[in-house]
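User: Sequence recovery, please. Input:
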């Protein structure tokens, strides 16, 4: 059973976990949420612009959006982070100082916006075209109809996909450590890795992985729950009555009316 004891000491050393736990909570978890939340907000803003450009009638708007999406979806995330983080470090130092934190957030937001833009575009295009035609028939402009009617419906339909994208951003935030974050800016993975290097034990990394699971697994089940609710609600709202149900209602309605009159 020596191998079992070795496995526990390597991966489940609770003393090593307890030593790094305050730093994981106070520094790693906080920075992971800050990086993920900021990248998600910027990604949503840029993604919405890309989605509107992607469905525009002008090819001069569609083509740049398509090129942007293909590039940032096609490149590996770590390559994009290194290109942005190291290529624009001179500009970041003039604005933000020596911290690469803002460039890491920017790189993640550029990656996320390419996916979020496609999510928004699919959601907007899934709205029945009759909605837009009805708005135009009521005298609304194309922009007003899209902003007030079509886009809100499209966003509601893709909320589960947006949460899935947030989960991906949380996991990709671990790649920001390649930029060499300051001690106070290190996220979960970097805190766990530093403690593992110092102690020669992988238990701090395992604890960092547990924190990632605590964040992502509940969100995954929440996405599945709301996705099922949206699908079920939409199915109930849009399911047409069968021919037999219509015939039954027509045949029963005279009897019901007769009963009410008597």
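Assistant: Recovered sequence (262 residues):
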């Amino acid at each position: 059973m020596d191998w079992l004891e070795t496995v526990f000491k390597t991966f489940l050393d609770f003393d090593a976990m307890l030593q790094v736990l305050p730093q994981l909570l106070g520094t790693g978890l906080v920075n992971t949420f800050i990086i993920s939340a900021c990248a998600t907000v910027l990604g949503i803003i840029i993604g919405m612009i890309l989605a509107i450009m992607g469905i525009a009638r002008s090819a001069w708007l569609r083509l740049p959006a398509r090129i942007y999406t293909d590039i940032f979806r096609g490149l590996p995330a770590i390559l994009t982070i290194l290109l942005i983080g190291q290529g624009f470090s001179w500009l970041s130092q003039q604005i933000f100082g020596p911290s690469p934190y803002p460039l890491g957030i920017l790189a993640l937001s550029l990656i996320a916006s390419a996916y979020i833009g496609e999510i928004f575009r699919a959601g907007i295009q899934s709205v029945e075209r009759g909605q837009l035609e009805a708005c135009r028939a009521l005298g609304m402009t194309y922009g007003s109809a899209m902003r007030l009617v079509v886009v809100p419906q499209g966003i509601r339909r893709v909320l589960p996909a947006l949460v899935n994208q947030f989960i991906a951003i949380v996991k990709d935030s671990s790649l920001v450590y390649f930029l060499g974050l300051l001690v106070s800016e290190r996220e979960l993975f970097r805190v766990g890795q530093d403690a593992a290097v110092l102690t020669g034990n992988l238990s701090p990394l395992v604890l960092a992985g547990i924190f990632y699971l605590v964040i992502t697994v509940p969100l995954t089940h929440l996405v599945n729950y709301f996705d099922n609710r949206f699908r079920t609600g939409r199915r109930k709202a849009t399911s047409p009555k069968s021919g037999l149900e219509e015939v039954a209602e027509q045949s029963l309605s005279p009897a019901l009316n007769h009963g009410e009159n008597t």
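The mean pLDDT is 83.
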